[in-house]
Amino acid sequence: AQKVTQAQTEISVVEKEDVTLDCVYETRDTTYYLFWYKQPPSGELVFLIRRNSFDEQNEISGRYSWNFQKSTSSFNFTITASQVVDSAVYFCALSEDNYGQNFVFGPGTRLSVLP
Amino acid sequence: EPEVTQTPSHQVTQMGQEVILRCVPISNHLYFYWYRQILGQKVEFLVSFYNNEISEKSEIFDDQFSVERPDGSNFTLKIRSTKLEDSAMYFCASSEGGRGPGELFFGEGSRLTVL
Lengths: 115, 115
Fold this sequence. Notes:
The structure holds 2 protein chains of 2 kinds.
Chain A: E1 3-5, E2 10-14, E3 19-21, E4 24-26, E5 33-39, E6 46-52, E7 59-61, E8 64-69, E9 74-79, E10 88-95, E11 103-105, E12 109-114
Parallel strand pairs in A: 2-12
Antiparallel strand pairs in A: 1-4, 3-9, 5-6, 5-10, 7-8, 8-9, 10-11, 10-12
Chain B: E1 5-7, E2 10-13, E3 19-24, E4 31-37, E5 43-50, E6 53-57, E7 65-68, E8 75-79, E9 88-95, E10 105-106, E11 110-114
Parallel strand pairs in B: 2-11
Antiparallel strand pairs in B: 1-3, 3-8, 4-5, 4-9, 5-6, 7-8, 9-10, 9-11
């Protein structure tokens, strides 16, 4: 069965600091998909990134970057020069199903960016 | 930008009452989902729906729950006789499906409070 662990329950940083959110997953499948979602205080879930298991290239999108390491089953998320608006709960998720039928979410990491 | 819409945003009900939560997925999407998030906890999969039938459901999705796509646009979640522990945020999501799970597009959620 698949499993997602986000060991950091809460993180606080001061604005402009860099912060990395950890995600470790477990799966027996060779084909799987990893995701990050953001949940701001307003409550909605906002898609950030999808990565499939065959693509280990790291990705950068503005201040966001993701580091996918199959050898350690990790898919970490870094925010560079954090801003107050980055304050949210961030969820890592895993899907083994080719049709995305059953996402498993990690428990989430609450990030607080202080001014 | 197309989005998933959910109604109501918040519903308060008495224990034992029936509740229907409504969702309008993105129009060209083929897969529909309901997820649940108890306050402060992780997002949990309830059910996925494809081609007018349930394709997968979790242990949470017992006989008290049902889903329906009564017309070409709405996707509903019914809780037949609500319990206190059904109090949660319920998220509807949809995806294009096809080769590999695309991103799940989530609605803003319907908060259910059972008294």
